[in-house]
Design goal:
The structure is a single chain. The chain has 4 helices and 8 strands, in the order αββββααβββαβ. By secondary structure, the protein is an alpha/beta fold. α2 packs across α4.
Length: 200
């Protein structure tokens, strides 16, 4: 009888436990991007820390509701805090487009004149269930062997159906589009299409 009671209590506790969280990534299982013509001439480059709005920079997904409130999805999470996760996703996508990964030693990348250095500031990262997902991004490139500094801004938006997976897939597409523009500007050293840029 004691054994049966113990099994019943264990079953009740297991049933009342919190469900396991779902973990999501901005990096698809395989990138479909191909190398950009002229990428071989880019040389070494480094990708600095990515900044994101403070309210979104956490592991849990943060979605916007129609009444202006935000909702934190405690059981739906990125695989890392959003800022570091976006940096990792951009690194993967840039590697596909440029044929080589960014340098890991960021301190030397910032100071070495032979290394192009990229900074990315995500100014909006919106998840609106059943409507759209948006990324507004500003990036700055200090080119190797040059005093030229290129600053660009672009907006990316995807319509999405209902569902958390749809939100993630939409932001994967936006991240890929952002990566493509950053790679284009790094290769050409000029403003890419679909971006507003200034240089000095």
């Amino acid at each position: 009888m004691k054994k049966i009671l113990s099994l019943m209590v264990l079953g009740i506790l297991t049933g009342c436990g919190s469900p396991a969280p779902f973990n999501y990534t901005l990096s698809p299982a395989s990138s479909t991007a191909s190398m950009i013509p002229g990428a071989a001439k880019v040389g070494p480059y480094a990708l600095g820390d990515v900044t994101v709005p403070a309210e979104a920079d956490q592991s849990s997904l943060v979605v916007q509701q129609s009444d202006g409130r935000v909702l934190i999805l405690a059981e739906d999470r990125w695989s890392a805090p959003l800022s570091s996760h976006i940096q990792s996703a951009l690194s993967v996508e840039l590697t596909s487009r440029l044929g080589m990964p960014p340098l890991q030693n960021l301190s030397s990348g910032r100071q070495d004149p032979k290394v192009s250095f990229i900074r990315v500031d995500i100014q909006r990262f919106d998840l609106v269930p059943g409507q759209y997902v948006t990324i507004h991004a500003l990036w700055r490139i200090r080119f190797a062997e040059s005093e030229k500094l290129l600053t660009c801004f672009a907006k990316f938006q995807q319509p999405v159906p209902i569902g958390v997976s749809a939100l993630v897939t939409g932001q994967q597409k936006n991240t890929q589009l952002l990566s493509d523009l950053i790679a284009q500007s790094l290769v050409s050293r000029t403003a890419p299409g679909q971006a507003t840029c200034s240089e000095r």
